[in-house]
């Protein structure tokens, strides 16, 4: 770039000038698809925002009753109040129709494979003018990496501009990111969206995954989110199936929805707006 | 957050993002030397800006906020993935070819020889034309460290680039 060997101010200035020119010639005239980058960035921001909103929705409402249950025994012994070391038998689910986070957790846990060991569970119920939410987070021990899942369930009057559950522009694959979205009808009238995003380059160890399943019937939401770290190929498939099971299960799906709807009636000022025509489910994913 | 805010804020973000994205991308490309990784960096930066838009709007300089977000994203990204450095020999990008591409490859190779802090400093100081104080703020390093690293990095770039310069002159 300049005469080598000199360490003087003048030669440094010359080097700086040359570096600036080299920068300009290297990247100054690149042709970019700006709209595509902005669109992808905006979509990623919306997903990030939605995840935060769901995770923080319960915590942001005043008057919380917080239940914290730590440790595997706290969940599998304390919640089910029996000494079984594996997940609850599905037949127990009916009598565990959720009325609080603990029961909801128990109903959901019933669907998880026994190979996943519960490490830690936190749950909380939030009451507020916008509705009632139950939320809990689970920390699972898996080999070789841990898994963190967050469940939120509740009914709320969603804003009028709340986007419909569709997969517009959500099935794509760009550098390092693959998104698969699938919409389908649920037996109890809701719409299920399975949204799987994987990020990271194959062969690297820092891949992570976010899976969310959202069931929507009128103005409700029920979501499952999972984050895991590479390698998670097996976990991704497992979680996808689990999410579907949870949301299709009448004990966790329709009954949960109705239960929450009933509970909303005791919340002062709570009212659901008249329902529009249900979204026509379409399958756009594989 | 924009989600429940007005369409005006959404439009404001989109307009700003459209203006700032080319600049961010060029900086990102200089920082990481890989076209696709640069796209990822910019996308992540835009996502963070989207979520933080109410704060961005209150900032004295939106561009400085965006630049700082990109730098922090790059630095944290490299910290996490420092074992996955992309060799510049296999850089493929949709940019121009021929001599320009050779020059770019040489530049990326030279930049890749710097550690991540030094690279950030060089890009901020000599591409973004940021002051030592601003570079210090964005990288989290002291001003003295910025000066020292900057001089060292420039000396290294000069030494690396000198043979090529002689050959092409």
Summed up, what is this model?
Chain A is 30% helix and 28% strand. With 286 residues, chain A is of the alpha+beta class. Chain A has a nine-stranded antiparallel beta sheet, sandwiched between helices.
What topology emerges from the helices and strands here?
The complex is a heterodimer of chains A (286) and B (169).
Chain A: H1 9-27, H2 34-57, E1 64-70, H3 72-79, H4 101-109, E2 117-128, E3 131-141, E4 147-155, E5 172-174, E6 177-185, E7 191-199, E8 208-216, E9 220-229, H5 233-248, H6 254-264
Antiparallel strand pairs in A: 1-2, 2-3, 3-4, 4-9, 5-6, 6-7, 7-8, 8-9
Chain B: H1 7-32, H2 35-51, H3 53-58, H4 62-80, H5 99-112, H6 116-126, H7 132-139, H8 143-168
Describe the model:
The complex is a heterodimer of chains A (286) and B (169). Chain A is of the alpha+beta class. Chain A contains six helices and nine strands, in the order H-H-E-H-H-E-E-E-E-E-E-E-E-H-H. In chain A, strand 6 and strand 7 form a beta hairpin. Chain A starts with 8 loop residues before the first helix and ends in a 22-residue tail after the last helix. Chain B is mainly α and 169 residues long. Helices cover 75% and strands 0% of the residues of chain B. Chain B has eight helices and no strands. The C terminus of chain B is likely disordered. Classes of the chains: A alpha+beta (286), B mainly alpha (169). The interface between A and B is large, with 46 and 52 residues.
Radius of gyration of chain B: 17 Å
pLDDT < 50 stretches of chain A: 1-7, 58-99, 203-208, 229-233, 272-286
Helix content of chain A: 25-40%
The largest sheet of chain A, given as strand count, sense and whether it forms a barrel, is:
9 strands, antiparallel
Strand content of chain A: 25-35%
Order of helices and strands of chain B: HHHHHHHH
Backbone structural class of chain B: mainly alpha
Assembly level = heterodimer
* N- to C-terminal distance of chain B: 53 Å
Strand order of the largest sheet of chain A: 1-2-3-4-9-8-7-6-5
Total DSSP helices of chain B: 8
Number of helices of chain A: 6
Q: State the total count of DSSP E strands of chain A.
A: 9
Number of extended strands of chain B? 0
Estimate the mean pLDDT confidence of chain B.
Answer: 76
Rounded to an integer, what's the Rg of chain A over CA atoms?
A: 24 Å
Structural class estimated from helices and strands of chain A: alpha+beta
How much of the sequence lies in strands of chain B comes to under 5%
Largest interface: A-B, 46 and 52 residues
